[in-house]
Give the backbone structure.
Amino acid sequence: GEDVEQSLFLSVREGDSSVINCTYTDSSSTYLYWYKQEPGAGLQLLTYIFSNMDMKQDQRLTVLLNKKDKHLSLRIADTQTGDSAIYFCGLLSAGKSTFGDGTTLTVKP
Amino acid sequence: EAGVAQSPRYKIIEKRQSVAFWCNPISGHATLYWYQQILGQGPKLLIQFQNNGVVDDSQLPKDRFSAERLKGVDSTLKIQPAKLEDSAVYLCASSSPLGSYEQYFGPGTRLTVT
């Protein structure tokens, strides 16, 4: 099966950049994504990248994909307290979605 | 556009009891997913429907879990009998018929089995 690994916690100061990392094992995924989960809520799609891309930028969010190392990262510029949440890396392969266990981002004022 | 609706939001039962969860996906979404999210972990797919047919139920513990999607709209997930390890949040998600890369999640049902 598909394994997706993430570090569990990240703490940053408001205004700094946050970088959340993810590694995966299967290179046949067609689509990789980042979801955000706030307390008591379901997951919300933040951004995605197709497997034939290396980078995608969307306002404060930058996604980098290194297919050789099977590494995906999410950079949040100018991190705000409202960005505090759990961030899930995931991928779609053969029509099936697999998620990592999430990185809890804490933003300190 | 209304989001994915789930009920109940919370449920506490004793082990060996039965429980059912309900999901109403976004109108027009052909694909519906049920996930189990144990505290501290990511969502794990239990079952995926395309309209009213099952696409993937390989991780559904079929001895105790069942799910149906009658008429290709609403869905129910049932656990009978429940075990302590079934304590989790059960998330329902749906996606557009144009592609499954963006899933819209409901708020989930938090199940506690005592």
